């Protein structure tokens, strides 16, 4: 029995490495996915280098100039304080990308683990875990945020945690649904009968097989999180002027979309391009990792 | 009982005070009282109630209604927010705080059904004005008592089917968060002069939505306008945009109990480094009037002192004297404001003005409304945004904010000479000139200590459909729907809020 | 199956109790009380107001008295709307929000599923890219942006539809339903595409296809059930989110729904109203999550067998 298990484990591990390797090869063939990856890397690089490459100071104002449309001096125009919009978007990207990736990772980690365990173990454990999710859904989020902001003050780490704390709930439900349905399938039952430990089973079989919806939901969560950050800033938890983010720039821009459309269009474009790239990459990853699909 | 400016319009449409303000002149004119006499020493005011004044169920109005309603307002159990409106009345404050329990000792008496005699603590020139504040309106005793004790708040007496009122209009529908409709009242004493058949109020939280509703013709009158839209509306021919001075001041509170703001030189430096003209012209789109003191100019003919102006050189000198030459050694400062687009814009502009002029760092903190209120009352801030809208047209309403320990002081400012001038000297002044002179000296004292940084005097900003008449701008932004009429060429009869 | 539903309903009781308890103490910990306003009231007035609403009692007494009233279905008086009960406010706001949510969900499901299935049938072709790109735009377009944009285009420039209201002017329900629905349509499109792709690659579908069954039959008879599982798992929380998230749309379009009451209550520290709506919403969330789990079980034959036992 023991020796047999070891054999299975080794073979799984081998298949694992080749799976990732194959996936990478397949991903590279998907031109859109590669484009998405390139854009994301580029945006991240710009965000990291912003303090050195930004064309203007992000604070310095020129009130007399005010909001001006794109021009040679200011490629994307200026905001109502006469600040260069390109610079604002570059600095905003630092915050938004950080919030988007970190908070989503938090949500992903908690949600997937929670959902997988609940779905796999089932029974009473599942009931307790999922009712806890129900409770968290129902609590008044706004009050919770206000309290956090008062007790702990303004804190980036807290912002990530607060966002992660709400976003993992749906992730957990989706993961649980997937695992539940997978658990009944022959290959999983076979693995169980082979005596594979639950942790290994979840990691090796259930999570990879549920990856499709998870990747999709993750790419959906990132924009959500970036916009949620703007709302939390309104409640006093997020970032503080003159710091800015894409979510904030968009919500300011939305207020004056008729008067100064560029203040909405350019931050919106930055967010949209990021999202499209993420999705191309996400879909590419999904397809690349789909073992069965690859047989076609 | 309601609070808040927009709800105020609805209450004033369906109720009427003893005296009302003429919207053109703001002078008091007859309301429920057809006339009033004031004694030589100004302490006894006798109202003569119009015999034609009736409740909407047909009951005649009487002086007893006022005695009962004011007792209700002042009852400690009622917990009425605006009970201080009647504090000029003799013993009213003592009754409201529970020091005395016998209402007969309070200076309000019904001499007969139609004669109400009010005894004041001292000459109070603005007392008649207070009769137009909704807190002093009479309420219908039998209706309220039908549903509970006089002071019970949780009763259904304000429902459409129950409410009995006395104004030019009466409540027709009250759909929460949807709309409130009032229709012309046929029992109102001056009904022949009421021109509108009804008014519809839409509760809006969003000025942007409000402007759109106006633009497509769903509203005749808006309560406000988004800042960014002002230039567009100004340029229009026959512009519906109406902007007028308003009895209110936008300013920042300085916490004088904490360093570095415990040093008057720092406070003055901060105030002088603010370029109010540019701020108003650019960020605020010329929508307000730069202010250099707390009382709005031309408050009943009173003009506040202007002790300083935008003066970067002097501000830098003062800061250096205080020990921070060119911002060196500056400990940092936090500015708190409640979350709002306009407050944010002002705070961001100020932050940079201080940085440019004085080379000092100020961090901004926005707080959700109630958190912000809590910070202000606990004085848990260094600089905090604040606005004050006058309840009545008199410099007293602004200057008594800074009495020692006053509930709205929130700065730690305290000066015995100032208290004496506001509390004792001004009320005893024989003439208006003498009284205003005392106020002027008091305000000079205040602004020399600079516990606040005034930014601008508010204006009222409305979009008014061209068919609407009888809605003159005035300092109180007081809307008396009795005077409003629509041009016949325009069909739909509704005004929005 | 009935046993499963019964157990879940029993489990709902502790869930809701925990929600009530946590919320009750949470809202009181937040700074600022219901009677704080820009012009602060005197201490005496505040004390009198608190006495009127029994806020002067010790906290545990307030808590148990609240639970007692709740047992009778009484959610107490609203602090902000004087003379109104929370029951009444919820009764006024909920039907509006529910109707809005229903229309939005129909919009979301209709557009989302069609787009998702179409895309999954021909992955990596224009039939995939076009609907999915549209979905992406829907996702990065938050409702505070989409709503005003729709209003500008259809309400103001084209002048086809009213810009605000709910049930006052014909057609005023269209723009809010579209605004609220489109964000969810985008989600559903992406989730259903992923779910369908997953299923379409399974052996039994290959077999069906190999047998030469027509495309529509493969989709309708064999794949739809399995492919929609992620969508269904999303629906439960989505409907709850729809109710809470309708606040933005309700504010833009001046709709007198529960979302607006709820957020106003939170800003006003209207304790009873916050609690009342939270309790009400938690019941709905539990119900909808249950419903979505039942649906998921029904769609998945193996799970169905398990619950059927």
Summarize the structure.
The complex is a heterotrimer of chains A (296), B (497) and C (309). Chain A is an all-alpha fold and 296 residues long.
List keywords for this structure.
heterotrimer; A: about 300 residues; mainly alpha; MetI-like fold; disordered C terminus; B: about 500 residues; alpha+beta; Dipeptide-binding Protein, domain 1; Dipeptide-binding Protein, domain 3; four-stranded antiparallel sheet; 15 helices
Structural overview:
The complex is a heterotrimer of chains A (296), B (497) and C (309). Chain A is mainly alpha-helical and 296 residues long. Chain A is built from twelve helices and no strands. Chain A has a single domain (40-63, 74-289), classed as MetI-like fold (Orthogonal Bundle). Chain A has helices at 2-29, 31-53, 85-121, 123-138, 141-152, 156-183, 186-193, 198-209, 211-234, 246-255, 262-289, 291-294. The longest helix of chain A has 37 residues, at 85-121. Chain B has two domains: 5-167, Dipeptide-binding Protein, domain 1; 245-458, Dipeptide-binding Protein, Domain 3 (Dipeptide-binding Protein, domain 3), CATH 3.10.105. The model of chain B is unreliable at 1-5 and 492-497 (pLDDT under 50). In chain B, strand 12 (333-338), helix 11 (341-358) and strand 13 (362-367) form a beta-alpha-beta unit. Chain C has a domain at 91-257: MetI-like (MetI-like fold, Orthogonal Bundle). In chain C, helix 5 (126-140) packs across helix 7 and helix 8 packs antiparallel against helix 9. The longest helix of chain C is centred in the middle third of the chain and has 36 residues, at 86-121. Chains A and C meet through helix 4, helix 5, helix 6, helix 9 and helix 10 of A and helix 1, helix 5, helix 6, helix 7 and helix 10 of C.
Topology:
The complex is a heterotrimer of chains A (296), B (497) and C (309).
Chain A: H1 2-29, H2 31-53, H3 85-121, H4 123-138, H5 141-152, H6 156-183, H7 186-193, H8 198-209, H9 211-234, H10 246-255, H11 262-289, H12 291-294
Chain B: H1 5-14, E1 19-21, E2 28-30, E3 33-38, E4 44-49, H2 63-74, H3 92-96, E5 108-112, E6 115-119, H4 127-130, H5 141-146, E7 169-175, E8 179-184, E9 198-201, H6 207-215, H7 230-235, E10 241-254, H8 264-272, H9 276-281, E11 289-290, H10 312-321, E12 333-338, H11 341-358, E13 362-367, H12 369-377, E14 383-389, H13 396-399, H14 416-428, H15 432-449, E15 452-463, E16 468-469, E17 485-486
Parallel strand pairs in B: 12-13, 12-14
Antiparallel strand pairs in B: 1-2, 3-4, 4-6, 5-6, 7-8, 8-9, 10-14, 10-15, 11-15, 16-17
Chain C: H1 2-29, H2 43-52, H3 59-71, H4 86-121, H5 126-140, H6 143-157, H7 174-200, H8 203-210, H9 215-227, H10 229-252, H11 258-268, H12 271-299, H13 301-308
């Amino acid at each position: 029995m023991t020796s047999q298990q070891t054999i299975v484990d080794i073979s799984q591990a081998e298949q694992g490495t080749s799976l990732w390797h194959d996936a990478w090869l397949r991903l590279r063939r998907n031109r859109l996915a590669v484009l998405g990856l390139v854009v994301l890397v580029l945006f991240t690089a710009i965000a990291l280098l912003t303090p050195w490459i930004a064309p203007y100071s992000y604070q310095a104002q020129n009130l007399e100039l005010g909001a001006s449309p794109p021009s040679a001096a200011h490629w994307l125009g200026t905001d109502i304080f006469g600040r260069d919009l390109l610079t604002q978007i570059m600095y905003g990207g630092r915050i938004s990308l950080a919030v988007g990736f970190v908070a989503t990772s938090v949500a992903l980690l908690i949600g997937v683990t929670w959902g997988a365990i609940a779905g796999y173990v089932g029974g009473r454990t599942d009931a307790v875990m999922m009712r806890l999710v129900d409770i968290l859904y129902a609590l008044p989020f706004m009050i919770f945020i206000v309290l956090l902001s008062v007790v702990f003050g303004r804190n980036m780490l807290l912002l990530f945690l607060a966002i992660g704390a709400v976003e993992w709930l749906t992730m957990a439900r989706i993961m649980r649904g997937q695992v539940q349905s997978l658990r009944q399938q022959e290959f999983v039952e076979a693995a169980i009968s082979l005596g594979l430990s639950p942790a290994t089973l979840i990691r090796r079989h259930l999570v990879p097989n549920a990856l499709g919806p998870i990747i999709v939901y993750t790419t959906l969560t990132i924009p959500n999180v970036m916009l949620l950050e703007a709302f939390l800033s309104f409640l006093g938890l997020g970032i503080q002027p003159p710091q800015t983010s894409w979510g904030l720039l968009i919500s300011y821009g939305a207020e004056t979309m008729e008067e100064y459309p560029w203040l909405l269009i350019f931050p919106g474009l930055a967010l949209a391009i990021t999202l499209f790239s993420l999705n191309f990459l996400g879909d590419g990853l999904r397809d690349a990792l789909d073992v069965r699909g690859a047989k076609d | 009982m309601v609070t808040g400016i927009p709800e105020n319009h609805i209450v004033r449409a369906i109720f009427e005070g003893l005296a009302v303000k003429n919207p053109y002149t703001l002078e008091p004119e007859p309301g429920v009282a057809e006339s009033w006499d004031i004694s030589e020493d100004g302490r006894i005011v006798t109202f003569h109630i119009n015999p034609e004044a009736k409740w909407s169920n047909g009951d005649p109005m009487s002086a007893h209604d006022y005695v009962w309603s004011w007792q209700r307002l002042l009852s400690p159990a009622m917990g009425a927010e605006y009970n201080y409106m009647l504090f000029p009345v003799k013993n009213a404050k003592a009754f409201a705080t529970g020091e005395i329990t016998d209402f007969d000792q309070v200076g309000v008496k019904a001499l007969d059904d139609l004669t109400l005699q009010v005894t004041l603590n001292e000459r109070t020139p603005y007392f008649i004005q207070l009769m137009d504040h909704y807190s002093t309106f009479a309420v219908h005793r039998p209706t309220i008592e039908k549903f509970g004790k006089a002071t019970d708040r949780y009763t259904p007496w304000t429902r459409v089917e129950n409410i009995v009122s006395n104004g030019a209009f009466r409540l027709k529908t009250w759909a929460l968060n949807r709309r409130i409709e009032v229709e012309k009242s046929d029992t109102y004493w001056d009904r022949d002069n009421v021109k509108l058949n009804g008014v519809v109020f839409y509760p809006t939280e969003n000025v942007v939505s409000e402007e759109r509703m106006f633009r497509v013709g769903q509203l005749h009158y808006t309560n406000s306008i988004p800042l960014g839209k002002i230039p567009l509306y100004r340029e229009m021919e026959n512009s519906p945009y109406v902007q007028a001075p308003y009895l209110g001041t936008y300013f920042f509170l300085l916490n004088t109990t904490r360093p570095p703001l415990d040093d008057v030189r720092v406070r003055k430096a901060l105030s002088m480094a603010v370029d109010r003209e540019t701020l108003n012209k650019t960020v605020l789109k010329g929508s307000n009037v730069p202010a250099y003191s707390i009382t709005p100019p031309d408050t009943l003919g009173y003009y506040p002192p202007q002790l300083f102006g935008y003066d970067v050189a002097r501000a830098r000198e003062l800061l250096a004297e205080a020990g921070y030459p060119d911002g060196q050694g500056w400990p940092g400062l936090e500015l708190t404001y409640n979350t709002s687009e306009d407050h944010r814009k002002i705070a961001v502009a100020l932050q940079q003005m201080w940085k440019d002029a004085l080379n000092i760092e100020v961090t901004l903190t926005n707080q959700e409304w109630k958190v912000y209120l809590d910070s202000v009352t606990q004085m848990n801030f260094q600089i905090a945004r604040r606005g004050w809208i006058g309840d009545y047209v008199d410099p007293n309403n602004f200057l008594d904010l800074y009495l020692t320990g006053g509930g709205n002081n929130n700065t730690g400012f305290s000066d015995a000479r100032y208290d004496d001038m506001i509390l004792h000297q001004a009320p005893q002044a024989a003439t208006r000139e003498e009284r205003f002179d005392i106020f002027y000296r008091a305000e000079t004292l205040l602004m020399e200590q600079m516990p606040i940084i005034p930014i601008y005097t508010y204006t009222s900003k409305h979009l008014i459909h061209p068919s609407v008449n009888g809605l003159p701008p005035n300092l109180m932004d007081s809307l008396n729907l009795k005077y409003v009429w629509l041009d016949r060429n325009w069909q739909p009869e509704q005004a929005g809020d | 199956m009935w046993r499963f539903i019964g157990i879940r309903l029993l489990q709902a009781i502790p869930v809701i109790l925990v929600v009530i308890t946590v919320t009750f103490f949470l809202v009181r910990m937040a700074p600022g009380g219901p009677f704080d306003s820009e012009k602060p009231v005197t201490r005496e007035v505040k004390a009198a107001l608190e006495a009127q609403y029994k806020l002067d009692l010790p906290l545990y007494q307030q808590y148990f008295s609240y639970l007692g009233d709740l047992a009778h279905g009484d959610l107490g008086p609203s602090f902000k709307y004087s003379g109104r009960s929370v029951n009444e406010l919820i009764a006024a706001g909920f039907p509006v929000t529910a109707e809005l949510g229903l229309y939005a969900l129909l919009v979301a499901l209709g557009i989302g599923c069609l787009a998702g299935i179409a895309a999954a049938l021909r992955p990596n072709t224009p039939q995939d890219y076009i609907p999915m790109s549209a979905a992406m735009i829907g996702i990065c377009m938050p409702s505070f942006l989409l709503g005003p944009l729709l209003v500008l285009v259809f309400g103001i420039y084209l002048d086809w539809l009213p810009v605000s209201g709910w049930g006052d002017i014909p057609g005023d329900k269209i723009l809010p339903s579209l605004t609220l629905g489109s964000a969810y349509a985008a989600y559903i499109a992406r989730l259903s595409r992923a779910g369908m792709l997953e299923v379409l690659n399974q052996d039994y579908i290959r077999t069906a296809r190999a047998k030469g069954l027509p495309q529509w039959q493969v989709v309708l008879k064999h794949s739809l059930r399995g492919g929609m599982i992620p969508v269904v798992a999303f629906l439960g929380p989505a409907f709850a989110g729809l109710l809470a998230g309708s606040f933005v749309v309700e504010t833009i379009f001046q709709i007198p729904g529960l979302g607006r009451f709820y957020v106003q209550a939170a800003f006003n520290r209207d304790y009873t109203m916050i609690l009342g709506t939270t309790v009400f919403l938690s019941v709905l969330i539990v119900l909808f999550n249950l419903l979505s789990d039942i649906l998921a079980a029904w769609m998945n034959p193996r799970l169905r067998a398990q619950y059927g036992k």
